[in-house]
Amino acid sequence: MTTTPRDAFMTIGELAQRAGVGVETVRYYQRRGLLAEPPRPAGGIRRYGAAALDRLRFVRAAQRLGFSLDEVAELLALEDGRQCAAARAQAERKLAEVRARLADLQRIGAALDDLVTRCRGTRGHVSCPLIAALRDR
Description:
Blueprint (H helix, E strand, L loop, with lengths): L11 H8 L3 H9 L18 H15 L4 H9 L6 H37 L8 H8 L1
């Protein structure tokens, strides 16, 4: 029986490449407990299977959604599928954080828009409204 690339065991370099991360990222995730380190055979090199690749991809996908590595570890602990309510609660907390950050960014955007508009309206040797506003804070 031949093995497909998905079923083949990989070196850490191959694993990192397939997951789109660096080797040091893989090692860091191992130190953080996000990815198991396979045993090293006597005189050989460690080999990683498809499960390790899936796990790395999970970590990266969760990070792209804004989850910290601590939060990713919590999600991985809930991975058995019987903890859906806990996973949903964590996602709801993250969604609330994202919405709060968006609201903050909208307020910042409005304040900068106002300052840029005020800067465009000044002529001559007057104090810059942007610099003045930042100095007064």
